[in-house]
Amino acid sequence: MKLVALISGGKDCIYNMMQCIDKGDEISCLVNMCPQPGSKPHVESKMFQMVGSEATPYIGQALGNLPLYRKEISGNVINHEVEYVPTEGDEVEDLFYLLTAVIQENPEIKGVSCGYLKSQYQKNRLQSICTRLDLKMVCHLWGLDSISLLDDMIFDEVNAIIIRIASPYLSSKFLGQSIKECRDNLLEVRNKHNDFSVAGEENVYDTFVLDCPIYKYRIAIITSEAILSGRDAPIPIHTLKLVNYDLILKPEE
Question: What is the CATH number of domain 149-249?
Fold first, then answer.
């Protein structure tokens, strides 16, 4: 089955693509929702990962120049309910319009790959879009154990670094660390705080994938900038802005 992959650059959406390919599906193109120019680094969305958007176009190139369709988010969070019905002006409808255009241009696509883990809020919204467009939602990571999933990603050589922290349990020292480097520390935090998600659900941290087995090129960060937002807020947000980066061709195996 030919799929379009909803990506942010984070580990979950990329790993779900890996599972799709492993099960025989084909990723035909990518879609990404991005913030409007001039948005603050800590801009929030309940549906989409905003950080790392400056480097997301490199994902398509890293995958061997897969077509990437992008749309700026113009809507807001209007419908706050877990269950979703189409709501004019909601940010979800921005994705609906983008996927509508993609399917019109690529009618052979029959499904959407997504990396949702446990957020019923997000899953219901994409399901609403898929139902309207007669697409299948393909979410292989849904409901998996967080610790086992993180270990599987590390074992399968997903090199994802942390680029955003919004948790009282994580300090800025985690910024820029790979999930492999900080795996033991994340589990240590989980052992102390039962409400902490090792896999980063509920946006406690976000990641960006620099390399993985399905990349033809690895992404190298040349320069980055650490940004602190809401210094006096109950939960300050630490963000790693990817300023300069490059693509490095991987040797053929």
Answer: 3.90.1490.10
